Amino acid sequence: MPYMKEHIDSGIIASLGVVLLLVFAYSRGIIPTGYDVFALSLFGVIMIVLGSDLPDIDSRNAPIHKIFQILVPGAIVLISFVMLKLGIMLSLAHGIVALVFYTKLMPSHRQFVHTMRAGLLFGGVVAILLHSVFGSFVLSVWSGLCLSFGYFVHLAKDRWVRI
Ligand SMILES: [Zn+2]
């Protein structure tokens, strides 16, 4: 049973802890001054909060499942149409195929998607996507790590906290 608010609340608390550690490390000179601590903090918060609810993508009645059911085919249509310049009909067809794959291939609740391996996989995918958009290795790897961390917070809460 998905508990979006509870998972996002725990993600916000975890992300604030990470930002405090980041600012502390920066103030102590552990992080070199060339790094943009504001950008790292912002991406860290967004990724941890996203990761803290992402595992419930495998729950068909969870809001995050429904959001990604629109986002994934939409992204495929955009990539096909804008980047690959495939024409509107072929791009829409790709979106429909993506929707069918997303709906039919999603494992049942609390199977593979609710594992640490999946958290590392999603973190890696996010790092690769962000690197292709922003080109910053540090920001991409940091964001991927933060997404995986938020993911692990969700798994820990599912396992040890009764909500
Ligand atoms: Zn869960």
UniProtKB/TrEMBL annotation:
InterPro entries in alphabetical order: YdjM-like
Keyword terms of this UniProt record: Membrane, Transmembrane, Transmembrane helix
One Pfam family named in its UniProt record: YdjM
Transmembrane regions: 12-31, 37-55, 67-100, 120-153
Protein name according to UniProt: Uncharacterized protein
Taxonomy of the source species: Archaea, Nitrososphaerota, Candidatus Nitrosotenuis
